[in-house]
Amino acid sequence: MNYENILVEKNNHLAKVTINRPSKLNALNKQTIAELHSAFKTLEADTAIKAIILTGSGQKAFVAGADISEFANFSESQGAQLAASGQKTLFNFIENLSTPVIAAVNGFALGGGLELAMAAHFRIASSNAKMGLPEVSLGVIPGYGGTQRLPQLIGKGKAMEMIMTAGMLTADEAKNWGLVNDVVAQEDLLPLCEKLAGKIARNSSVAIAAAIQSVNAHFKEGVDGFNVEINAFGKCFATNDFKEGTTAFLEKRKPKFE
Ligand code: COA
After folding, report:
1. Considering all CA atoms of the chain, what is the largest pairwise distance in Å, rounded to the nearest integer?
2. How does DSSP assign 135-147, residue by residue?
3. Which of 1, 6, 155, 193 is most buried, by the most CB atoms less than 10 A from its CB?
4. Would you list the domain boundaries of the chain?
5. Is 110 within 8 Å of 68 (Cβ atoms)?
6. Ligand 1 centroid to 24 CA: how many Å?
7. Which atom of ligand 1 is nearest to the CA of 111?
8. CA-nearest residue, atom 4 of ligand 1
9. Which CATH architecture has domain 6-201?
């Protein structure tokens, strides 16, 4: 499928999705959000793809936010609709994707850009990256899940500080605060993400999908994550991957998962 604002590349078990509007610092407009949804949906259905890296094009930005020019004149109901449809189409969608998504944060990740990185399953940053939720400086709040995911990742007090000050964290500060897992030089960012994706690809993708679902259950209102884990654990026993994984261990060989 041809996209205008994103690039999708596949290499063996790995896919890379690059948001490609560098002249606008990869700001997320409506079309980009729709294209990302379509790309992630297609990649999730592709059983050969075991992990996805999400990054921004150019040296400067991952994503500098939602495209401010698109919503500057919105009414109250249009604002609510923007947040609701964005959350459903892209941010919650990525968080609940059964294929692991690693955000390679290669520069500014601001507003919707940081929210997008937070929707990924984990984040690695380059040392030039800057992260923040500047929405209150525009008279609005994060609307793509930022008020919910940031406290999950760094705790309530730090999240409140970041949101209220509209300030930016350096990559090292983001690592200290638990927002990203690691920080490397820009040229090492994709190689490290590919290495991690390669490790992921060696494991059972059925089990990984069950793990994503179980971890996410902890953060779902009214859902007992322990029960979700019990059910998902049980289901693993009926899979070919479980038979293969345990048999390979007992036969002292490497497993060949589906
Ligand atoms: N929405 C729309 N356009 C954006 C954008 C956004 N969130 N972020 C950057 N751009 C555009 C700029 O308007 C500019 O376009 P132009 O050349 O047509 O004028 C282009 O991207 C380059 O940005 P510029 O501001 O010139 O780069 P800079 O290096 O001086 O500053 C930032 C970089 C990230 C500090 C600055 O672009 C910025 O503050 N962006 C908005 C961040 C934000 O508030 N995001 C949250 C949105 S809810």
Report:
1. 65
2. GGGGT----SSHH
3. 193
4. 6-201, 205-250
5. no
6. 6
7. 46
8. 24
9. Alpha-Beta Complex (3.90)
Catalytic status, residue 115? yes
Residue 135: active-site member: yes
Ligand 1 pocket test, pick from 5, 23, 24, 25 with the greatest ligand atom count within 8 Å of Cβ, gives 25
pLDDT tens digit at each of 258 positions of the chain: 789 999 999 999 999 999 999 999 999 999 999 999 999 999 999 999 999 999 999 999 999 999 999 999 999 999 999 999 999 999 999 999 999 999 999 999 999 999 999 999 999 999 999 999 999 999 999 999 999 999 999 999 999 999 999 999 999 999 999 999 999 999 999 999 999 999 999 999 999 999 999 999 999 999 999 999 999 999 999 999 999 999 999 999 999 998
Q: What atom of ligand 1 comes closest to residue 142's alpha carbon? A: 48
* Dist. CA 164–CA 159, nearest whole Å: 8
Q: What is the position in ligand 1's atom list of the atom closest to the CA of 130? A: 34
Whether this model's pTM surpasses 0.70: yes
Cβ contacts of residue 42 below 8 Å, gap of 6+? 1
